[in-house]
């Protein structure tokens, strides 16, 4: 099918607009980075019926700080929920902006099925940093980990503002109804310094 001159010109304008918009968004993202300030974790499993041991923390490098979470289970965990909340705190009297607040089936998340796009993207990124299974169950007496995690903002939609970011994530047993591990991340989106930008 041959396009008429007017039709061809129209689609060319659309393509040029999309390309220029993509370039400006990419440039905006390249000017910002996510700096991790702290990462801690806790457990509601006070009787240690599910969780054997766990630890969380951040790397010592202040320039390129990463976070880690490790845990070992006493028993296999199949059916479970995964909870995540991402908040951008704002100065009072403005309420905090909730970017994401979702609870989803943990087994579907491991398999990366039937998830909202942001969760699917997060699961794909996590595969580079963790040994989490791609299907249930989590096995007992195996050291599961997320290590050296540092989010590249170029993988996300354009970011063009400096802001603190608070993230909470939890794994909860459906059978016992308790969060066997929860993580709390304090971070901030900030402009990349001139020295880093020109490297």
Describe how the helices and strands are arranged:
Blueprint: H1 5-30, E1 32-42, E2 51-58, E3 67-73, E4 80-88, E5 97-105, H2 106-110, H3 117-126, E6 144-149, E7 163-173, E8 179-191, H4 194-197
Antiparallel strand pairs: 1-8, 2-3, 3-6, 4-5, 4-7, 7-8
Pfam families: DUF1091 (PF06477)
Keywords: Signal
Signal peptide: 1-28
Characterise this structure.
This protein is of the alpha+beta class. It has one domain (31-197): Ganglioside M2 Activator Protein, Chain: A (Distorted Sandwich). Helix content is 23%, strand content 37%. It contains 4 helices and 8 strands. The protein has helices at 5-30, 106-110, 117-126, 194-197, and strands at residues 32-42, 51-58, 67-73, 80-88, 97-105, 144-149, 163-173, 179-191. The strands form 2 sheets. Strands 1-8-7-4-5 form a 5-stranded antiparallel beta sheet. Strand 7 and strand 8 (179-191) form a beta hairpin. It is globular. The relative contact order is 0.23. The model is unreliable at 5-28 (pLDDT under 50). It holds the Pfam family DUF1091. Residues 1-28 form the signal peptide.
Give short descriptive properties of this protein.
199 residues; alpha+beta; Ganglioside M2 Activator Protein, Chain: A; 4 helices; 23% helix; signal; DUF1091
